Amino acid sequence: MATVENRQVVLERYIEGVPKVTDMAMKIGKIELKAPKGSGAFLVKNLYLSCDPYMRGRMRDFHGSYIPPFVPSQPIEGFGVGKVLDSDNPDFKPGDFISGITGWEEYSLIHNTSQLRKIQPDDAIPLSYHLGLLGFTAYVGFYEICSPKKGEYVFVSAASGAVGQLVGQLAKLHGCYVVGSAGSRQKVDLLKNKLGFDEAFNYKEEADLDAALKRYFPEGIDIYFDNVGGEILDAALLNMRIHGRIAVCGMVSLHSISDPKGIHNLYCVVPKRIKMQGFLQSDYLDKFPEFLEHVTKNFKEGKIVYIEDMNNGLESGPAAFVGLFSGQNIGKQVICVARD
Amino acid sequence: MATVENRQVVLERYIEGVPKVTDMAMKIGKIELKAPKGSGAFLVKNLYLSCDPYMRGRMRDFHGSYIPPFVPSQPIEGFGVGKVLDSDNPDFKPGDFISGITGWEEYSLIHNTSQLRKIQPDDAIPLSYHLGLLGFTAYVGFYEICSPKKGEYVFVSAASGAVGQLVGQLAKLHGCYVVGSAGSRQKVDLLKNKLGFDEAFNYKEEADLDAALKRYFPEGIDIYFDNVGGEILDAALLNMRIHGRIAVCGMVSLHSISDPKGIHNLYCVVPKRIKMQGFLQSDYLDKFPEFLEHVTKNFKEGKIVYIEDMNNGLESGPAAFVGLFSGQNIGKQVICVARD
């Protein structure tokens, strides 16, 4: 088998605060396009990589989290879609498409198959859409954490993002009234005109977030799907209805960097009997088949729209990842490493 | 029937911030010791009154809460135990003892019987113990919100207070490891030597609450019963275990007055999948008989200790109530208006 160049995005050093492009570097390694005999591994050509905010957590020198940190000067890792080129694992054969944790590099030798899935190619579903584990986050958070009822009032922050766009659409399909917030007029247009939200607003244009929520939710909010934390969470707490539910999703951790003000309205959880719950999709993997069927079916019937922000080339990865933290992306941020 | 003097504690004015003794005043009214024919009401001689932090919420000019504000120059109201002197309600007869919402005054004419209960006198249970609706708060919060399992690590703040003392004892009876925090050495002694907590500490002597919790919970906290909010909540968030539960009880609202720093560690709810839930006992009234049986039985068997801080005389009410907010009370704060 040939030994080829393998371009990689490596972590330069552990970070604090918001990631910068210079925290990562391009490196050219070499790789033999072969899975060593007896390794049980397989060699994958990476096609699409997912840019997700949680990855910042792995850029810190902190070992107490649910997932270990990246190793400096080694490729960073993330969710990806790839094609098997060679395999020493009988369950994965050359030509198979897979999704799961892979390296930010052209080729990866994969040993750990614990959360890896084989993809059945389907002309109606682009390969890159299988990066949609975050769609699963939306599904789990909305159905398992929020216990939605038809007719309820749902608020989604970062609503045009990877998770938010699906939460809003699932809520609409469930018969809820849905309002989203986002950080630009273009995103607000998208929410209202393409993603079917009942209303949407640009939080950057609102001097008083509490007043904005009172305008959009005169009856209050039953379900708040929180993708941002910080001031929007604080305003939402003031506007929750009795027995309201707040699903707290990954990005809240980012606000802890940039928002030193803290949360002040948590006392609202008592008189309003609010349930606030953090979650990770990985606790609900038994629901994955149900999710895939539900979302795929609705997507094929045109009832769910999926918006990707696709950057081309591995070298576009660092900027695309960093862009997440200033809301550069519209829809799910994806890197195309190779088409096939 | 005689018309007699009726001493009352009235609200002087709506307040902001922490209540002061001067926000209330003693007033002498007159009352006919008779329930008017056709009123459906009954006349009660108030014996014991409960001092509860939630009452502060009714001293503000705010009508959006779950309970309306007090009326200035009218007696404040709270949970009490009384004896029926005269009645136009066939369900309540002279000589009956009752518990429920009554006025802070010597005699009250009661129309609203919605949360009112008749007490069966029992030599083994002092009458004032029936003010223990907050014991019910402990019961509901611990069993319904925290879903405790044997062997779990439980942390209780304001642990020698009305709610905390019972939460800790219920947790011990359930087979949990229980640590409480309180604001004086005397309270800490009480927790360890009388209430059966495994450990207890004085939060005022801890420069670093995070470090204190790590010392008492090297394995982390499964259940935090939060009676205070603020910095202790922030430190607890850092020390919760995966799938931890936080029951948020009334007093958190007080910290919103005195703690302008806000909560900063809420991001922990995501990787740790924490459930944080506010609650009110009034949502769980169907559990009241079960609570009464469980707690009464354990009390009679000497397995539950109940600590009251009893002040004598209606005129001691304002200072006792205000004292709650600086931790003056040890155990449940009660006012004895009359013995019988």
Automatic annotation (TrEMBL), chains A, B:
It comes from Gossypium raimondii. Residues 57-335 form the Enoyl reductase (ER) domain. GO terms for molecular function: oxidoreductase activity, acting on the CH-CH group of donors, NAD or NADP as acceptor. This is Enoyl reductase (ER) domain-containing protein. Keywords: Oxidoreductase. CDD domains: double_bond_reductase_like (cd08295). It comes from the Eukaryota.
